[in-house]
Amino acid sequence: MKKRFNANIIVFVFFAVFVAVGVFGKCLVGIKDTAKEAVKQVKDGKRGEAVENFISGIDKVTTEDLRYHDLLMDINSVKYLLTNTRIVNKDDSVIARADSGSLVSLIPEMTDSQINAVADKIEGLQNKAQASGADFLYFAAPGKEIYETGPENLKTYALSNYDRFIDTLNGRHICCYDLRQALASSGISERDYFFITDHHWRPTTGLAMTEAICRELDSRYGFPYDSEKLEPESYRIDNYENYFLGSKGKKVGTYFTASGADDFQILLPKFDTRLHEDIPHNNVSRDGDFETITYYYEHFAKNYYGKNPYAAYSGGNFRLQIIRNELGGNGKKVLLVRDSFACVVSPFLSLETDELHIMDIRDFVGYSGDRFSVYDYIDQNDLDLIIVLYSSVKSVDSSDSMYQFDVAF
């Protein structure tokens, strides 16, 4: 009987050639040590464990110790795609390819006590805002995993966590708005809410959600805004094809999904703008139009593994960023407590306010300056409105979680 040709051999041969070319120094030592450990485990009768450890060991060597890191990551991603490997453990996280081809993470189940602990912090901030005479509203941004169907053996609690969280906020009479409603009525297809290789909203989604935020604030608190400044037709949208490999894509390679890298959009107003930006911890104070203030082009490059174009919006994450609308907004002085989802919201929101104070209180080492108290900041500034924009609740151990409220208050 004629044997069928195994296409995986081609992938293996190319992979082995590039590994051989790239090996030097400690890389060679790493491969040798990994192989020796695998042989020892086989002798000890631990064949299954030996295979798993050998593969993970080689992956570590090829992604960390070789000169051709980017090329090898891409080759490895083709191997995953051809062998229909849909779940990868990388850097203490789990990345999976959903049925749609989009990349998602494993979201663990949160207990009632964990959710209530987050709600306590939000309620405390609401009470502080109201005591200071400011209005308050929490905007809950649903995570990407809510909209995706992953492999059958990937159990995720994204939707149940989110539903229970919203129910808890409503049950405790915390002023909140579920942005799922706004996404559903935005006219944007579910597939286009988020990047394929990243967990963030696309810039066009950010613009639509800014309009939804302003509309809800106006409905509740009389927040006048110019809706024309938040319409897609008011912007020149420059599309850069295959330009952005998101944080999930960087972990598994460009071709883990057949879609490859994401397109990326830069939105430029067709109307006049003049803004002033202060970043106190970085000693930044500057004037300019929307493009000058909003886009940090040092992050904007087609360098899949070396750059993060998403950070071109707003410059990424700062402890505190203050934007004043020099052409006059709606007379409101607003504090936005945010996570990275707001990178594609705060620039557009700044066009509707007089002053937008943007505060990121998450626990990231790379931030300039120490974390500081949101409560103290409220006391020191005469604010009209305090809003929070956070993506859906994650693991209690995540630095991207609402649990960072603990240390900021």
Question: Any overview of this molecule?
Answer:
The strands form 3 sheets. The protein has an 8-stranded mixed beta sheet with strand order 5-4-13-11-12-10-8-9, sandwiched between helices. It has a 3-stranded antiparallel beta sheet with strand order 1-2-3. A two-stranded antiparallel sheet has the order 6-7. The chain has helices at residues 8-22, 26-43, 47-64, 69-82, 112-131, 158-171, 180-184, 203-221, 247-252, 290-294, 346-349, 374-380, 405-408, and strands at 87-90, 93-97, 103-105, 135-141, 176-178, 235-244, 262-269, 275-279, 284-288, 320-325, 333-338, 355-359, 385-391. The protein is α/β, with parallel strands linked by helices. It has 2 domains: 8-85, no CATH class; 108-408, no CATH class. Helix content is 36%, strand content 18%.
Name its key features.
409 residues, 2 domains, 3-stranded antiparallel beta sheet, globular
